[in-house]
Write a structure and sequence with these properties.
Blueprint lengths: L2 E5 L4 E6 L4 H10 L7 E3 L6 H12 L3 E5 L2 E5 L7 E2 L1 H4 L8 H9 L1 E5 L12 H9 L3 E5 L2 E5 L7 E3 L5 H11 L5 E5 L5 H12 L3 E3 L5 E5 L7 E3 L5 H14 L1 E6 L7 H9 L3 E5 L2 E6 L8 E3 L11 H8 L5 E5 L10 H6 L3 E5 L2 E5 L8 E3 L3 H13 L3 E5 L2 H4 L5 H7 L3 E5 L2
Parallel strand pairs: 2-15, 3-14, 6-7, 10-11, 18-19, 22-23
Antiparallel strand pairs: 1-23, 1-24, 3-5, 4-5, 7-9, 8-9, 11-13, 12-13, 15-17, 16-17, 19-21, 20-21
Helix pairs in contact: 1-2, 1-7, 4-6, 5-6, 6-7, 8-10, 8-12, 10-12
The structure holds ligand EPZ.
Ligand EPZ binds next to helix 1, helix 5, helix 6 and helix 12.
Length: 418
């Protein structure tokens, strides 16, 4: 298992291009199963979750190959509707395949999905939605078994705006008979990206981002060449790193609109921010000022995937902050690791009460999940002295070339295989 060795205290300067969004690419790869025509997804980040999704497509009988930075998928030879536990357990997005596989084969057998250990992560909303489209579902020894005569459009009201459930239902509905309306749908930018991808295949989907997604079923889908949107969470991680270390950084290839809630908080922290077209400029030249309260919410609220990184920033602010995690039950596993660095944080129920300290000090910490691991890295970059972050395989799931990009901005970080 690799680790990072990081020497803290260096300002960040320069320009970095943001990767294509992990949480767009994953449902889009699942959607490629819906068509027999070739699909090319451009500039896909080389991360573990994508590699595992490519393996899952292979297991279904699809041909999915890397061509440089792109992935070309040919699902015309797909002939298997089962995803074994070993593969399904590798990532949360395996569950998205339920919708695609049922739409293609009228059957699906998928082991319960894996993903970051940040909470219960049930799939009840996925299954309720699929049942509304006519799918019969049984669950036995860790597998979800689905079958249906045909998929029929229907109205679905989600109890909560689940990203995955919205996406799964879209995938099942796009070739159903009739129209499906998903109410209380998630509004994340990745939902709109999936809508645009499905429409590029010849689907008829509209309303993504509005909270109500309308899918008019079509008989057949074609192929396409598609560039998904930029990764707003990777971008937010670099912005928070700059706010913590001080510096003058330009992000390229990003949509500032998708980061409004973070930009608003970073301005409260005292950072100077400017956005122009697909660029964000951030300058931070003094100790950040504490933001009183940060509450994670479904989009367009503050993203839960930036909660850990933002809490790390709060640790070195002048003043106190309260960070509340409203989406996942156990998304503070990184807090004891930050305490090893001298952070003053108390977690009560779903809130972290942070008292800002002047400086964190280097320590050896352990990553427990993807975004918590990223938080430990940015904390180490801002700390005094040397740190080690262990078990960075969690970080490799979602950040491509993380140490290279941070080093290009001036961070002193290197990967060591152990
Ligand atoms: C997606 O996960 C993202 N993953 C997560 O990013 C992200 O944190 C999350 O959306 C919220 O934005 C991918 O897109 C691959 P949800 P997902 O369904 O779909 C409850 C990262 O770091 N819920 O929107 O699993 C659930 O318990 C990852 O990149 C149900 O109750 O999230 C949670 O409280 C981590 N029943 C809330 O909804 C269900 O059937 C939000 O979950 C489904 C979800």
């Amino acid at each position: 298992m690799d680790k990072y060795i990081i020497s803290g205290g260096r300002r960040l300067e320069g320009r970095v291009r943001v990767q294509t969004a992990k949480n767009s690419v994953l449902p889009i790869l699942a959607a490629a199963v819906l068509t027999d025509e070739p699909v090319t997804v451009l500039n896909v980040p080389d991360i573990t979750d994508v590699r595992n999704m490519v393996k899952i497509l292979g297991c279904l009988g699809c041909k999915a190959v890397y061509c440089g930075n792109d992935i070309v998928i040919d699902s015309s030879s797909a002939d298997n509707c089962e995803i074994p536990r070993a593969l399904a357990h590798e990532l949360r997005s395996s569950v998205f395949l339920l919708g695609s596989v049922i739409s293609r084969f009228r059957r699906a057998k998928i082991a319960y999905p894996g993903g970051c250990d940040i909470g219960l992560r049930p799939v009840d909303l996925h299954l309720t939605g699929l049942k509304r489209l006519g799918v019969k579902i049984t669950e036995s020894n860790g597998y979800i078994n689905c079958e249906c005569e045909k998929l029929t459009g229907n109205e679905i009201m989600l109890d909560c705006p689940s990203v995955g459930a919205t996406e799964n239902i879209m995938l099942a509905a796009v070739r159903a008979e009739g129209t499906t309306v998903i109410k209380n749908a998630a509004r994340e930018p990745e939902i709109e990206d999936l809508q645009n991808f499905l429409n590029a295949l010849g689907g008829r989907v509209r309303g993504a981002g509005s909270g109500s997604v309308v899918v008019e079923g079509v008989k057949k889908l074609g192929g396409c060449i598609y560039q998904p949107i930029a990764d707003r969470i990777e971008a937010g991680t670099f912005l928070i790193a700059t706010a913590m270390c001080g510096g003058d950084v330009e992000l390229n290839g990003v949509n500032p609109e998708n980061l409004s809630s973070l930009l608003h908080k970073l301005r409260e922290n005292g950072c100077k921010l400017r956005a122009k077209n697909d660029k964000i400029f951030i300058r931070s030249d003094r100790r950040p000022v504490a933001v009183k309260s940060i509450e994670t919410q479904p989009y367009p609220g503050f993203p839960t995937d930036l909660q850990a990184q933002m809490t790390a920033l709060c640790c070195i602010c002048s003043g106190n902050s309260i960070v509340t995690e409203n989406l996942f039950e156990t998304r503070f596993k990184y807090v004891p690791e930050l305490r090893k660095m001298g952070a003053d944080i108390t977690v009560i129920d779903r809130s972290a009460f942070v008292r800002g300290v002047e400086k964190l000090k280097g320590a050896t910490t352990v990553a427990h999940d993807l975004r918590g691991g990223a938080a430990l890295v940015v904390a180490a970059m801002a700390a005094e002295g040397e740190s080690e972050v262990l078990d960075i395989s969690h970080i490799d799931r979602g950040y491509a070339r993380f140490e290279h990009k941070l080093s290009s901005l001036g961070a002193r970080i290197r990967r060591v295989g152990i």
